[in-house]
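== Fold encoding ==
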Amino acid sequence: MLYLKLLIEHQQWGKNKLNTLPRIFGFPENNRQKTGDFSLPLLQFLFPGISENMPASSLTPDERSKIKHEFESATVKHILFKSKVKSYLYGAATDLEPIVNYRVCSFGQWIYERGMPLFGQLPEMRELEMVHKDIHDFASYLVELKQHNQTEKALDELPNLEAKANEIFALLKRVQERAGLV
C-alpha cells in the first residue's frame, strides 16, 4: 500500500483515479479490490514517470533479486526449448507440442504468465513476443522437414535456429536494460 501512496503523491492522483487502476489494466472484476497488491516494480513498468523519479536502483535488494530471477528463469526456459528442438532433430523421442505451439512451451508460458504482466507495456517485450512466435514457426518448419525425411536439411538449418534464439536472448537483455535492472 505504501507504493500506491507514493504513486498517488507522485501523480497527484485522488482516490477516484486510483480506483480506476485495476480496470485500466484489465484486472477481472473480482480482483479489483486488490489494488494494494501492486508492487513497485510493476508500477515502474506501468508508469514510466515512476521509473524516472524512482529508479530501479531504489528497489530493495529482495525486489531486484526477484525480478532478475524472472529473467534468469526465462533464459533457462528458452534454452530448454532449443534443446528440445535439437533433440528431436537428432532422433530423440520428443513431445512436439512445446516445439510447435508457442503458448505451450515453458518460455511461452513465462511470457504470458510472468513477462507480459510485468513488462508488457515495454515495446521490447512486445517485440520479444513476436520473435518468440517466429522461432516457433521456424521450429515447426524444421519438424516438418524431419517428418518428410529431410533430416539433413533440417540439421543444416540449425544455425538459423541459433540466430533466432540469440535474438531472443538479446531482447531479454534489452527488456532488463529498459527496466533499469542492469
Notes: The chain has two domains: 2-58, 61-178. The chain is about 70% helix and 0% strand. The first helix runs from residue 2 to 11. Confidence is low (pLDDT under 50) at residues 1-40, 46-55.
